[in-house]
Amino acid sequence: MKKDTLLTHAGRDPGKYQGMVNTPVFRTSTVIFPTLEEYETRSGDDYKSVRYGRYGTPTTFALEEAVAKLEGGHAAVAVPSGLAAIAAAISAFVKSGDHLLVADSVYAPTRNFCERRIRPNGVAVEYYDPLIGAGIQQLIKPNTKAIYCEAPGSLTFEMQDIPAIAQAAHGQGLPVLADNTWGTPYFFHSFAKGVDVSIHSATKYIVGHADVMMGIIVTGEKHWLPVRRTVADYGYSVSPEDCYLALRGLRTIGVRLKQQMENALKVAQWLKSRPEVKRVLYPALESDPGHRIWKRDFEGAAALFSFVLNPVGDQAVTAFVNALQLFAIGSSWGGYESLVVVADIEKHRTATKWNPGGPTIRLHIGLEDPDDLIADLEQAFGKMGEA
Ligand SMILES: Cc1ncc(COP(=O)(O)O)c(C=O)c1O
User: Fold this and answer.
1) Which atom of ligand 1 is nearest to the CA of 153?
2) pTM of the entire structure?
3) What is the CATH number of domain 253-386?
4) Between 3.40.50.970, 3.10.580.10, 3.40.50.720, 3.40.640.10, what CATH number should domain 3-250 receive?
5) Which contacts (CB < 8 Å, 24+ apart) does range 269-277 have?
6) Which end of the chain is more exposed for a tag (fewer CB within 10 A), N or C?
7) With a 6 A CB cut-off, is 198 part of the ligand 1 pocket?
């Protein structure tokens, strides 16, 4: 099946639910069994069936199956947030005495997790230049246990060469873990590109409507049990209502993403032409240094990018952001609405320097008419000039 057909049909079985198009919301904590034998069999079936609310219900399984199929992985597990997915995926692979390689451009809370939870437990965390590609080979040590990527980084949009990193990692028997929130299971088929464990903040495009927090980890067959067991050991559990909403969101991820990408490209091209703007950081633009890899590996781009202003003072940046009417100030992205944040990047780098030469602003482009968004940015540039 092509991906849009999969998106419509995966993870549902009307024949099982009296003809209902969508898998209904199943609420439960306890699941009861007719015999002790069945209780024991299902408890040992590696999380494949319903046995206790914490391990998922048919609603959870429907969502997990749809995401895993869409991305081309073996199986998926839903967890309470994207950061919970990051924490569980990393914890599944490292213990005291191990070495972990992490891209210097990672989402800041991933770095916090590594610094505050992983390093103090005896893991040597080493950050690497996200543009390193095959050069990662030189950083692999005998005790390296995993390589963590994020392509592209969600503030600087530096594109990583995942196939080259995966080739080096797999040569040493190491798994590649990747935050694929920007790529989404729709635009980046991570398993075909060498990723072994794909991490999503489902809060973003999968849910798509800014109303549910959720993470999803998808793995290949080899890494499924270690990851699933780690999630079980942490006691993570997601509500069936949230799974229902996430699966409902997923059904339209294709049309939303294609439209939002078109809108984002229009806004990004316009920004490029503005005298206030030094650079636009968006791999979908031909002028972006990551464009070649993006074009080779991705089937589309999320509507999230940054732009660097020519040097201006903090007051002017504040005036610009406060003047925006259609772009709301707020964390997160991936919903149907446009958002803006000022990116504070330098303090999160240790392996490489990030000095773009001006303040960096990140935009998420929603489903509004892009001409209205451009007009909003234009009037805000006017306020910036006055400030
Ligand atoms: C790239 C990326 N990964 C992970 C997360 C964390 O997801 P959540 O907010 O669902 O915990 C975010 C959230 O902004 C993100 O931008």
Assistant:
1) 1
2) 0.98
3) 3.90.1150.10
4) 3.40.640.10
5) 270/374, 270/377, 271/307, 271/377, 274/381, 275/310, 276/309, 276/310, 276/312, 276/381, 276/384, 276/385, 277/307, 277/308, 277/309, 277/310
6) N
7) no
